[in-house]
Design a protein that fits this description.
The chain is an alpha+beta fold. The protein contains 24 helices and 21 strands. The strands form 5 sheets. Strands 6-8-9-11-10 form a 5-stranded mixed β-sheet, covered by helices on one side. A 5-stranded mixed β-sheet has the order 19-12-13-21-20. Strands 14-17-18-16-15 form a 5-stranded mixed β-sheet. The radius of gyration is 37 Å and the shape is elongated.
Length: about 725
């Protein structure tokens, strides 16, 4: 098999395993949901079948045992409980390991993998013991089987109604039963004589009898129909398969090619219905009176006991899946991530080249050229937005991974915790999604371990015994906000401050609650009473903050004693290209993300004098802290006569940046900073202007906090910008 085929198997198997895990977690709360059970069974069956095609025997052998138990669940022989769900979840983990081993080309299993498989195998077999198949009855029944009896029988049921003229045509009805007996064993025959007239009116050359035959044999429907080949046009023949055949038909449905087919064609292809039965059913369907509501083909087949309802349902589902898959294939195209990244880089270079051309056009002053450049700039912007949209993915897939985490960790901690997900459809850049998983894992585990109390504590506090953990995502001001919310005990100001003193962290005794809560992101600070496998060593929350800031994001925390804690992560939608606003300070240029700008204000002379002596202004009755970028970045260039304030808003905080010039909107291609410059405060990246000069992209969250800090009357500082970077 080629590498591409194996890669496709790996992708499909992982998707199916994700479906299995998600369905199992839902099934635990809805044990009787047959749709979930069928989804789990189909996923396991498909993995087994595809693994067999590639010769991955380890996958086939293990999954076959899993499939057997799932079949028992589907038939109602095994009840769904937490113990079974836990076992099946462990089986999905084992299947995932086996898939990876197979894809990597390893033929031998490690001892740990093999031993784990044997342990799971033994536990699965525990659900198979004592469930022997029902033995076949050898007694001839004297009554006609009911429709329900026919549809649940463990043998073939053959219903024969001969035409009255069959004897006159030289056919012996009994001879066909004798021939049928050679293919297997006739268990019982019930003779139907309802049409038999009085003896005086009986014609010895006519056949008035019908037969209901229960038959056992390792045959298919086509073989049974072939027994009556010479008389099939002179009788009404209905062949109902054993109940046990349903699984075989469903298995064959899964193996059918993904081609658009009608329901009858699907059933014939699997052998559940013969072509003759289909033709009869279609004829019966078409002969219905126009005044009668026409029955669907599946309803006709089930009514005539030709096929089981489960088989029709599975065929209809297969039909719908194929239609959806074909529709999806016409709509979705898998693209290698590297190719997509290359496209984004080229679009970035196109944006820079377009800015350079636009600058040159303005310099030349040719109106036609300016008009042409305006059109090109609009098209480049549309290309940019379309290219970036290709990288946008829903965060729901990342959120759903935590269903399993919350289930397993809550059981490990002995707590009753429910996960609620909101905003799963919120989209953001693929790169951000890939890198946010680990920080979220830290936060979720921390909330479960530190935040949410045990059931006993919650009950004593008057809370519901079940704790609630929420993952929430939404867009706000050009950013995405991800919240991890728990309804636990909340953060204790006193415990955090005591721990800070113990660790030698200095702070003002009048520090606000908000700043106290932010201390949990300091390295080595943990208020846990004891160290557990999950948390308590003071390692993790500082890593969370560092990883989020590496994504040009910001993390914040709010809490209320007895009510719970909310950790908010604010991230940019994309890490590649943004709409920016270009400002000038001295000889330097700076870019502010456009989505964060609230308004721009030109200062008059009186306001400039006011700005020069304090760190906040009165903006229409609102106190607005501000930061002079010239002083913060220690720019010694000659001051301009007029100044402006750019008012920005990040979350619930507003602040102003005092700048010399407002240069207008600018499509900003974000270039990463070198390692030497990554530690500089107030800077999140750089970009190249159309002139070829480099402009710095401002780190708005950091600068807003700085401005708010400076405007606080209790804050004493010798000179603004003492700890700021120097740029020339």
């Amino acid at each position: 098999m080629g590498d591409k085929a194996i890669n496709s198997f790996e992708v499909e198997a992982k998707e199916l395993l994700a479906i299995m895990e998600d369905s199992l977690l839902q099934l635990e709360n809805n044990p009787g949901d047959s749709d979930l059970i069928n989804a789990i069974f189909r996923s396991a069956h498909t993995i087994k079948g595809t693994g067999g095609v590639f010769g991955f025997d380890n996958i086939v052998e293990f999954t076959h045992v899993v499939e057997n138990v799932l079949d028992k669940v589907r038939s109602g022989d095994v009840d769904v409980d937490s113990e079974l769900i836990a076992l099946l979840l462990s089986c999905t983990d084992q299947m995932s390991v086996l898939v990876q081993i197979a894809v990597d080309g390893d033929e031998e299993l490690d001892d740990s993998v093999r031993e784990n498989g044997e342990s799971l195998h033994a536990q699965l077999n525990g659900y198979m013991d004592g469930t022997d198949s029902a033995s076949l009855s050898k007694e001839i029944v004297d009554s006609i089987a009911t429709a329900e009896d026919i549809m649940v029988a463990d043998h073939w049921h053959i219903s024969i109604r001969y035409d009255k003229e069959v004897l006159q045509n030289g056919m012996d009805p009994i001879s066909f039963l004798r021939y049928l007996d050679r293919l297997g064993e006739i268990i019982s025959v019930t003779i139907l004589h309802d049409d038999l007239p009085d003896l005086a009116d009986t014609n010895a050359e006519l056949c008035y009898l019908g037969y209901e035959v229960n038959f056992y044999g390792e045959v298919d429907k086509a073989q049974i129909e072939s027994v009556f080949e010479f008389v099939v046009e002179m009788c009404h023949l209905h062949i109902t398969p054993p109940k046990e055949k349903i699984d075989m038909y469903i298995e064959m449905l899964d193996q059918l090619p993904d081609e658009e087919m009608k329901l009858g064609e699907i059933l014939v292809a699997t052998g559940a219905v013969t072509q003759h039965e289909l033709d009869d059913a279609l004829r019966e369907q078409s002969e219905l009176n126009e005044d009668v509501i026409q029955e669907k083909l599946g309803e006709v087949l089930v009514k005539e006991h030709i096929v089981h309802q489960e088989t029709v349902d599975a065929a209809l589902e297969k039909q719908a899946q194929v239609a959806e898959r074909i529709k999806s294939q016409n709509r979705v195209l898998r693209v290698d991530a590297e190719k997509l990244d290359k496209l984004i880089n080229l679009v970035g270079e196109l944006v820079i080249a377009g800015a350079s051309s636009n600058l040159l056009a303005h310099h030349l002053g040719d109106e036609r050229l300016l008009e042409s450049m305006s059109t090109m700039a609009r098209l480049v912007e549309e290309i940019r937005d379309s290219a970036l949209y290709l990288r946008m993915v829903q965060i729901g897939e990342t959120f759903n991974r935590f269903q399993r985490v919350v289930r397993d960790v809550s059981k490990e901690l002995g707590k009753n915790i429910k996960l609620e997900i909101n905003g799963a459809e919120t989209e953001l850049d693929k790169t951000v999604v890939e890198k946010i998983g680990d920080p979220l894992m830290h936060l979720v585990r921390n909330s479960m371990d530190h935040g949410i109390e045990s059931a006993e504590e919650r009950k004593a506090a008057g809370k519901p015994e079940q704790g609630i953990l929420k993952l929430n995502a939404y867009h706000d001001s050009g950013s995405i906000v991800i919240e991890v919310i728990d309804d636990g005990r909340g953060l204790s100001r006193e415990k955090i401050l005591d721990k800070a003193r113990e660790k030698g962290i200095s702070f003002d005794e009048n520090i606000s609650d908000h700043d106290v809560y932010r201390m949990i992101f300091e390295a080595g600070l943990s208020t846990a009473k004891e160290v557990t496998n999950l948390s308590g060593r003071g390692v993790g929350m500082d890593v969370v903050k560092r990883n989020i800031e590496a994504l040009r994001g910001n993390v914040d925390v709010t809490s209320e004693i007895g009510k719970g804690t909310t950790v908010s992560i604010r991230l940019p939608l994309t890490l590649a290209i943004i709409d920016g606003f270009l400002v000038g300070v001295g000889e330097s240029s700076y870019v502010i993300p456009l989505d964060l700008i609230h308004e721009c204000i030109e200062l008059n002379q009186e306001e400039q004098k006011e700005v020069a002596t304090q760190s906040y202004i009165n903006l229409r009755g609102e106190v607005l802290p501000f930061l002079r970028l010239r002083e913060f970045f220690k720019d010694n260039a000659k001051e301009k006569s007029r100044e402006n304030i750019v008012v920005v808003q990040f979350g619930n905080q507003k602040a102003g940046f005092v700048v010399d010039e407002l240069l207008g909107e600018f499509q900003t291609v974000i270039k990463p900073m070198s390692k030497i410059l990554q530690k500089l405060q107030g800077i999140s990246g750089a970009t190249i202007l159309g002139s070829g000069d480099v402009a710095v992209i401002l780190d708005v969250p950091t600068l807003v906090q700085r401005a708010t800090h400076l405007a606080d009357p209790s804050h004493k500082v010798g000179k603004a910008g003492d700890d700021a970077p120097v740029l020339h």
